[in-house]
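Handoff note, outgoing to incoming analyst
You'll be picking up this chain. Sequence as last confirmed:
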Amino acid sequence: MTTITASMVAELRAKTDAPMMECKKALTEAQGEFERAEEILRAKLGNKANKASSRIAAEGVVSAHIMGSVGALIEINCETDFVSKNDDFLAFASACAQLVVQHNPADVAALSALSLNGKTVDEVRLALIGKIGENISIRRFTRAADGQLASYLHGTRIGVLVQFTGDAIAAKDVAMHIAAMKPVALSIDEVSAELIAKERSFAEQKAIESGKPAEIAAKMVDGSVQKFLKEVSLLNQVFVKNDKQTIEQMLKAANTTVSQFTLYVVGEGIEKKQQDDFAAEVAAQVAAAQV
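Most recent structure output, in case you need it:
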């Protein structure tokens, strides 16, 4: 039997970037033959990609790209914060944002079918899953091609794309403000009826618990809802750089108009796996590797 040395495993890992244990297993199965070991790894990593696709990917990055008057914002997810810092993962996210700008795909499926470095985006994604060992998914993207554009990334976890006319510095300030204050709509009129109904229900419950007379309670509810609408609509929010101005006042002073914005926060709305479950999964994987 061929002895598999640490240097052989390290060499195969350097060549394929596959996990250490997988490299050792492949070399053992191939009796030390590197080409055969690479073929085994390709087959196994493909299987790994299929298994990984069922796991929750709630970490990841937001990437932005603007080219002239066209811009895009995209969220791509992975399973751990560690992988979200991986250079290959970051490069994939950046490349996908550029493809959205260049080709205007209708949805994630259309983006996945586009060509990237001689393969489809989905083939590149699956290869990356095999290489990294985590589920990777393209969650959502938006594309803007109307008027001037400004973007702001807070690290890689929060991204904002703003459509505006006027002063670019003011627009950038608005993008930064959106990242910090997270408005849900541009103006009060654009706040969804569903969100208003939910807030009204909450305010009515508080009013009932207060024990106030019905007339006063009704006024309390209306006041609470109006306060909420001002807090969540961008133009009515107090500017983070100047608490004496609303965003609407700041924009007016800068002779600038914002027509639309998109805000992405990584993992927002994705139900994450409980930490205990994740720990149990890791323990099970370790135990399986020792068999």
